[in-house]
Protein 1
Amino acid sequence: MKRLKKRIAAALLSAALCAAGFAGCGSTPTWAVQDGERTLPVGTYICNLITSYQNAVMQADLTQDLFAQEIDGVPVNDWIKQEALRNTKGIFYVDGKLEELGVSLSEEEEEQITSLSSLTWSQVEDTFEPFGVSEDSFETAYAAYGVKMAALFEAIYGPGGTEPVSDGELEQFFNENYVHLEYLMMPLFDAVSEETDGESSEAEPVAWTEEELAEAKELFDGYAGRVSRGAMTMEEAAEGYAESGYAQNDAMEAEFLLQDSITPREDLASDYPAEFIAALDALEPGEASTLQLTLPNGEFYLLIYTDEIAPYAEEYLSGETNRNNTLGTMKYDEFLQAAYEEIDAMDVTVNEEAVSHYDPQEMFS
């Protein structure tokens, strides 16, 4: 389901971009892809163009002209069209695979399709509908496709699937690919608010003096040494910080100051600055260290800690959501690669007149 969420998010993020595009889209053939007696309307292809464009934006260097770049060695304009067509053909693929495996969507999954489609369509209708994208096409290309792909994934790798992943295999993957980390963040400034016409707003923060900075850093450096020696836990460090007078909000309890996360190592780069990851990677399990970071809202001093991940496996994987997410992290790329190979090899009829009518560079520039 995490890929479905990304597809929906991409549609929402790109909705505003579409308002300025699609010039000359009013008079085109009505269908895009045909497989036997079933035909997909051109609206499904347009939806996938929007998603593929947004995916390209997320992979590109935003300081450069998007359409002067390449993704995986393919010019961006061609990459967007290829991905859009692949995902449109994929609608036939997933239906065929589910039928082949004898899998029917549950009532809950059918309701999920309806609710996801309805909720998202209400937010993007005014953008999509003028370009000939109906709510039915939107539902087919987004909610239905995502839910069905998730059902197919479960039918292959879930319990009772054709290639089920055992609890032992999943735990081994978790131990090898996940990390447990904890950290405290100390702002090296005082936040200031000011009153204007009876309304409060943020003013320029007040930087600490050199003496204050030295004392604050000494506090966290001391915590790091004690945590690394086993003389203090991170919870105790958070309690000490909360009572030290250096916490920006004195009323904030220690449990809210301490950030605790179990996450795939592959996701660290999207969630944390490179300097944070480098400091984390330099730690042995059970060690803590400090780090100064410059963030958009100011300078911060951090206390970072990591330990062995294995003791967390049983409890973490006992939760259905965590188990499903870990299974997705483990197998979804493999699943998509296999699916894409089959989709690319599908013998379907593409309405070239309709597909060629939509050029991403013209639509989104």
Protein 2
Amino acid sequence: MNQNYKNFELVLINDASTDDTLDVIKNFAAKSPLIKIVDVKENEQFWGNKKYPLTLGIKAATHEHLLFTDADCLPSSDNWITSMVQNFSDSKKIVLGYGAYKKEKSYLNKLIRYETLLTALQYFSYAKIGIPYMGVGRNLAYTKSEFFRVNGFISHMNVKSGDDDLFINQIANNKNTAICFEKDAITTSIPKTSFKDWLLQKRRHISTAKYYKSRHKSLLGLFYMSQILFWLLAILTSALAIKPLIVLPLIGIRFLIFYLIIFFTAKKLDEKDLIFLSIFFEISLLVIQLRIFIGNLFSKPTHW
């Protein structure tokens, strides 16, 4: 409510909560005319599907430009709205932002934030070269008319997740998408604190990726395979001492390029504490992602 923006409303969506959430947000609304409440009743057809309450919230919104975040997120500054929406134009109908996680000292926290950083590096970079493929609901903006132009989430309403990445994958193109990575535009969320909970979250995210456009799946798969092959070949050639005068400098060049990319990305997105251990995070993620891929082949995550 302290945002430095002249004309906005805050739409709070109560998704059939069973605690005192509705009373809490009603108390907020009583103190400010800017707050609009959308109270969603339980619907068996859409149980556990975030897209249904989001659709009701979008329909209730007064303005054309919509800026999304989650209930556990905080803007990094009072200029969050201004920084994000200034990227809208006559042609730009979508703005991709960065949703960071709160910093803690544990290795799991740093691993979660590194994975988030790497994901942002990918979707920002692809969008910058005209191949936008996803966004994150913790910090995402698009127009109301663009939402209704494609009938909202109707084409993937049966998929419980994907209200952000799958929707952006469906509607984004090289003309209608902008990116915003200013520090004032970052939001911060509470990360998972147990490996089990985080693994379930990632399993759900990866299971959604199979609905991406074929071109995007190929590019993302190629990136992952290039990482796997690099480490396998680096270990194999080093162990067998195959042409070390050629191989070792190539490995060193790859590490240097990788480090520089992570360095500048982490610096720009205020994640500088992740730089030093980035190589270890990369290895950890490769192993975890391989485990998730194999796990999802045998069983799919069924709950939100």
